[in-house]
Amino acid sequence: MKKQMKIYNKDKKVSKQILTTLVILLFGAALGTFSKYLDYRQAQLPYLLHIMDERLDFHNFLGSFAPWILIAVCISVKSASPVRAAVNVFAFFTGMVSCYYLYTNFIAGFFPRNYAMIWFALTMVSPFMAFFCWYARENGKAAVIFSAGILAVLFNLTFSYGLIYFDVRSIMHVVVFIAAILLLRKSPAKTLVMMGMAIIIAISVKIILPFHLW
Question: Which of 8, 54, 154, 211 is the most exposed place for a label (fewest CB within 10 A)?
């Protein structure tokens, strides 16, 4: 009887994991479709969507990396294990990128090959990044470092800066950055350390890399 219960519980757990991944896949597909719809039909949007897009530049915001990275990080840290994080994030990007470019090709009638290759590459490496992002949910030193790395990427996606200037890309990018801080926050002291490290890493990356994706 105990053995049967263990098998039943294991099967139930696996079924729940499969269902969760399927929901995430469909969620990504819906967001990818909506993102391209917003971009392609921006002049013909329903009134409320048109006002939102006009005020917040929503279609360009969804065309950037920041919102998708935030969603991927959220999926990662909320997953049950690093492996589940990898599977779930890969499912999300597969659904999102596939539907975005299916809409682009078959409805919008064009296919931006070079830009698509960047997103396809991101989809392929997303499981590996998600695996390590999962550890950002903890409170140890490694978690602070991983969290700082994530925030460094979002910092460079949110702010445009140099020796004599500092600017914000958009209000929505700031919202994403603040949401990421809240998602990854630790104790007050560790959060301050995490933020300090993130800024140092962000500036270092900006100086060292000969190119930028943001």
Answer: 211
